[in-house]
Amino acid sequence: MADPKDKNTSTDAETTPAEDEKTVEKKVNVLEDDDEFEDFPADEWEDVKIEHQWQDTWEDDNNEDDFYNQLMNETEKITGVQPMKL
Amino acid sequence: MKKYTKLVPFLKIVEECINNKDGYELASLLSVKKIHSPALMGQIAKSNIIKLCKENLPKYWDVTVCSQLKALYAYQNSNVIEACEEQKACVHAFDKLFQDLDRWVLPLVYVIHSDLYYLSVLADQELVKQNKKAGNLEEFARILNKAFSYCLNDRRVPVTNSRKWGTYYIANLLFKTYFKLKSTNLCKNIQTAINANNMLKLEEFPISQQVTFHYYSGLILFLDEQYREAEKHLLKAFKYTRGKSEKNIMIILHLLIPIRLLSGVMPSNRLLNEYSPIKETYGNLIKSIRSGNVKKFESSLKKKEKEFINRNTYLTIEKCKILCMRRLFKKVYNIEGKPTRMYVSSFKHALKFVDMDIEDDEVECLIAVMIEKGYIRGYISHEKRIVVLSASNAFPDINTISLA
């Protein structure tokens, strides 16, 4: 094999064609197509203030939708909304 | 980034990084995804690169780098099986160096191991296609465990330069590997080892590592049905993931929403509107729980059944049916003017209204379960077929009830 010094001076080095790079890049990134938790980009993290993402008091309102009105009619049919006699 | 057209100058730079302890630069030079110039690739393809590496690099570094370059070449030429073998040789050679190195080299440790993870997965897929035995990922798990010990058990003082700083990154990669291998039970060994060790606080590590660690901790607890603990970890992971990775946010929310629903916490409309795929999946379920419409709950669950099974959350979401039913019962209770006594038939009638046509005894049984779980406060008088309810707070807030 050639002497390392020859390697240093060999001139098979050319500038890189741009399209070539794109194809290689595409090929190189096949690794990412997966439904797993991915690595995060290594950049700065700041604390993002997020509000009102969750709601734990949703039962407070009576949620008077169509369903509620129908249910009320149904319930009235059997109880007449009378307090129970005992 | 500077591109090298010849191997020797490239190796000189590698050597310079080693001497300067520049782990970050070294890692970027020795990743299988690094795009080298065609000229340099041409030289890597030639068989004498080991000779050049030996002439230009210290012992063991020569094989580490040479094998890495061969792995890169094979990988970028779509030969994943060979790439995996070469990358393994790279990691083996590096192993001999690792025990004498400290914190600075960790970025390189991360990149060569995470590359080996991906190459093992790809090589195994290829081997399966060829009907051959695929054991690369299993072997990788053993290799990675070694790196994990090197990090965790580094006892040098002061801790500033310790390899201990690599523990969580490697632990996260181990979790990922065990999940891929479906050997999730092994994750506990890692957690135990970390807990038993006089480990640095997780909060002192890079946030990306913290988030991933919280995600896996939450997932492991979730699979163990320890919902409250899982929720804590996943909430922390979620908090920091925002704006970082849409994919990871989705993965976290698909676990967090079922867990939180079960404890009576709903995603707000704001959250649903922010992530439309989440709204698509959970919107109708949430609406039905809100209104107590058990019929609609059933049909919404049915529609998304496959997705939930794939996500391992079907059983958790199915458990929310009792929540929906509780909501229905509470509405009936409100409609009747919050009495302290209610006929079982009132509940039976409401259930019939949502297409659950069941006998009195079954209705009583359902109410008994809710009383036992703390969703309703009171007792049943079986003879009179009535439910005697607590005068105060007969239907307590769901988020105050402990999850069984």
Automatic annotation (TrEMBL), chain A:
SMART domains: DSS1_SEM1. It is found in: Nucleus. It comes from the Eukaryota. InterPro entries: DSS1_SEM1. GO terms for cellular component: nucleus; proteasome regulatory particle, lid subcomplex. Its main location: nucleus. The keyword DNA-binding does not apply. One of its GO terms (biological process) is double-strand break repair via homologous recombination. The keyword Nucleus applies. Keywords: Nucleus, Proteasome. Residues 1-23 are annotated as: Disordered. Belongs to the DSS1/SEM1 family. Component of the 26S proteasome, a multiprotein complex involved in the ATP-dependent degradation of ubiquitinated proteins. This is 26S proteasome complex subunit SEM1. It comes from Anaeromyces robustus.
Automatic annotation (TrEMBL), chain B:
It comes from the Eukaryota. GO terms for molecular function: double-stranded DNA binding; RNA binding. InterPro entries: Csn12-like (IPR045114), PCI_dom (IPR000717), WH-like_DNA-bd_sf (IPR036388). PROSITE patterns: PCI. GO terms for cellular component: transcription export complex 2. Coiled coil: none annotated. GO terms for biological process: poly(A)+ mRNA export from nucleus; post-transcriptional tethering of RNA polymerase II gene DNA at nuclear periphery; transcription elongation by RNA polymerase II. Pfam families: PCI. Residues 211-394 form the PCI domain. Belongs to the CSN12 family. This is PCI domain-containing protein. It comes from Anaeromyces robustus. The lineage of its organism: Eukaryota, Fungi, Fungi incertae sedis, Chytridiomycota, Chytridiomycota incertae sedis.
